[in-house]
Amino acid sequence: MRPGVPMITLAVLLGVVGLAVAQSSTPMPLDLKVIPPGEGLPRATAAFSGTWVGLWGNQLDHTLVVENIEGATAQIVYSWGTAPAWNIRNPGFVRVKATINEDNILQATLDNGAEVAYKLSRDQQSLSGQYILRGRPTLGTFTRQK
Fold it and tell me: What is the pTM of this model?
């Protein structure tokens, strides 16, 4: 093998991986900012803070950003990609208020009327989610983005 070929191959592979990641990402607002939770917040509630990524129904890229938590209220960014099989062709995002109920479930109603709910795993490194629109639930799993 000629000198430099392994590095070129690695660069090409990294470029392809980077392209795949870029295509699966979801849009975000330019003023996105995660504010660290205050000290008085229960640890289980504070654990929602940050960015979570995954798929709804193994089809639709989704990013949840919990920007700020104050008591039982949170400000979130709900972002989605495309899913041609579901006829979702335009990615986007909305910023909405959410609540964290007594069972430590983060819930919000989106602009389209859908209700979303997220529950933390025991290790607080993943969320199980449910998206309900017109009575039809879709499930997803989301992991904390570092």
Answer: 0.82
Domains assigned to the chain: 1-146 (2.40.128.120)
CB 75 within 8 A of CB 67: yes
Q: Cα dist. 120→4, 47, 94, 146 in Å?
A: 46, 8, 22, 16
At 12-58, the pLDDT tens digits run 333 333 333 333 479 999 999 999 999 899 999 999 999 999 999 99
d(CA 102, CA 88): 34
Burial annotation 131-142 (CB, 10 A radius, 16+ → b, else e) = beeeeeebebeb
